[in-house]
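Interim report to the steering committee. The following record documents the input for Protein transport protein Sec24B (913 residues).
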Amino acid sequence: MYPAGFYPPKNQMVRNAPPVPDGLGIRPPNGPAFNVPARPGAVPYAWTVGSPSTGLVNGYPESSTSTMPAAKSLNASVPPMPNPGAAFPPFPPMQNFPSAPGAQILPPVGPPCRPPLGSSPPKVPTSLTTSGQPQATGIPSASAKCAPKSTSSLDALFASSNLIPDMSQMDLSSRGTSDLLKERHILPPTPVEPPTVVLPPPYDSSEVCIQPDVLRCTLTTVPSSTATLKKARLPLGLVLHPYKDLKKLTILSTSVIVRCRTCRVYINPYVFFPDQQHWRCNLCSRVNTLPEDFYYDPATQTYGDPTRRPEIKNASVEFVAPPEYMARNPPPACYVYVFDVSTAAIETGYLKIFCEKLSAHLSSLPGDTDTLICFIAIDSALHFFSLKSGCRPKHLVVTEVDDYILPCQADVLIVLHKMEKEVREFLEMLPELFESASSPHLAFGSAVSAAHQLIASTGGRITTFLATLPDTGQGSLKNREDPNMRAAKEVQHMSAACDFYKLLALDCTANQVAVDLFVLSERFVDVATVADVSKFTGGYIAHYPSFNICNNPTELVRFADDMDRYLLRKIGFEAVLRIRCSAGFAVHTFFGNHFVRSTDLVVLANVNPDSAMGILLEIDDNVDCRVACFQAALLYTTSHGERRIRVHTICLPTSESIAEIHNGADVQAIIALLARMAADRCLNGGSLQASREALINAVLDSIYAYNMCLSSKQFGRLLCSSSLRLFPLYVLALLKHKAFAHGTSVKLDHRIFEMCNLRIMPLYYLMLDIHPNLYPVHSFSSEEDTPPLLSLSFEKVDRHGIYLMDTGRYLFLYVGQAVSDTLCQSIFGVTSYKEIVGGLVKLPELENVQNKSIRKFIDQLNNARPFALPLRIIKEDSASRELFTSRLVEDRTDSTLSYTEFLQHIQKELQPR
């Protein structure tokens, strides 16, 4: 039965028990109200809204050994700052929102899945490790044992004195130290790569590595104690893209999903096999029995070494879940489309474009033959449509929007497969039906509530389009924007005006319904309030400012391309996500579009591949292991009704050295986490000024902490770890971003959307949004050339050149006014600069090296992402020039500092110490 040399387990096969209540199974929301508890004694990096920011360092009490003077304002662009250590005061313990009396709150699935502190791992029975057994495979037991690190008497003295070891005798260049004031243009010519994780043996396998665009930690060397984290003054957290489209993802269909019986972690590459019958959990150290099925390798279809299993060779895997992971039979995919047909919405012309796109992709929508679809139109009334085979659509109008009566579900919720022809005919006539719409009012809240009630029994996705302020029916709002306050330091009305949309989101989440929101208007629609229905259901939010089918071709192309992606991309229903951490670590706060059910579990009624999240971590106990592991498990239902579990695991070394922690810092992950924290603060009632100060103080904290590693004063120098040399630049770019800029006129809805977008953007696109890539494309000499990255300063822009800027959402092709006629001819096919047509264009296809090279490079940028980027040509003397120059974040403006001035301001604040 078994091959030669293979030793089967002595005892009978022991299969893993089905998931216990603290697992990832969906549970009906019928329990008591549950508030996320504050962890006693926890010292978070986050903030408490409105709390004074004195005597704190990133939310921590200042050490008695040092004090920091109050920051002084350099000019209006850099606000007066409190103690530079007061970066982010602590978060409120309740992560979602205070609910109205009697509101339904989802209950916790169960207690946190971590072993109790102080509990010892179970011992391996001596009878299982006799000399008659074969040698262990995988990680050797002696090297994998997590024992306390040995410390010298000198280290012990430093530890007892609460001091940092003297590093003055070390070679700073070898330690990766940078002097920021000596590097005028600090941006490297190639894209910034994430730092390399160096794991100690035996975890240092080069074959196993999590993809950095799926899961990254802000610190690739993790502090091993709360005290070390305080001294490092850097945020500890994860940036997670759980449902990213992966070209190589191992999907396993096994009879047994192996999990730890104590902490419920999924078996992964970082577990240890003391023998071929057991495995030791890398999170809680429990020794578990391997089921017999785990010896079977599906790749080779043979029995043998368990370390050959795909679960052990891949940091990201997806399991096809067995029936015990299902709380109910998976319902069919269900899509409801809610159209704004008020006067302002019809004027934009969006309805015709969307109906054409939906009709073209109707047969390709994610789902099976039982997929359901429904259409609702709204102005001052609710418009339902009943489609039946062989009959004209029935138009049902409900004018009583405050207390409406729903039509029969069977009449308006139809099976797409059976009625595809009728649906296409309906989509063709829908724009004409409302082309003469004359109602300026909108009952948006009533329409979303009605759509939710129609599909509450099945769950699904509600897609809404909004171009008018909801001013009638349930959830009606008033215009509260003051145009005169757009450039003020303190921006008002960044939080919701009422709780209606939050409470509606609760009901939607309880019934596994997500709401996606597309805003297509330059007018004020109060995104801060209506977006709550998407934020708390795992929904998606998009904004197309000044959208008009006739007057704004840029947004028209972007909207059309986005609809192609939106309608065809993968979708997961009934999703929950749990984060599990090594003993001593815990989740503090989640940032993204979701509902927090318990301290380490969030609910996403829908999950899509274009949304990410951030997770702030805390250390609640000293860590005596050489590595720390974090695992994200996403349980969801596919559009074909299959329950799956996608698991991502990351392993990082731990250290007590401040220098090692700083040298291993991931600056882009830190910026992504800080951006989400700052946006979340503003959207939950915090002030814009406080968020800006927190971002500046984060830079001060990091530089101050690193310089504390140096025993001697470094006068006239601004030293930081080389891994964090771009930190001040990225923070300056974030301060100039539309979400946090002051001194410039930014419409309230635009600002709020940018904040909402920062909370869910994957890291790669978030960095492009904050700090775009700028390429000189006039110097192409062959099609294989890759242009270098340029600093975002006009000093790098030559009037004789042509430059391509990638902002993540748009491509800007900037043409200098003194460009030669030869370049104009070879790239644009015109004889002079004056003949170049600005605006949205497609480059002509010409048979020369420069034209081919630029077109090929643009195609490469487009092919590297799942959506197309609209190209816009910007001439130096055109009115749209500001779109390009406003992204040059290293330059000074009337209300902001240049990069050099920002560094001088940082140095000035650090000098008094």
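Residues 1-174 have pLDDT under 50 and may be disordered. The committee is asked to note this result when reviewing the revised timeline.
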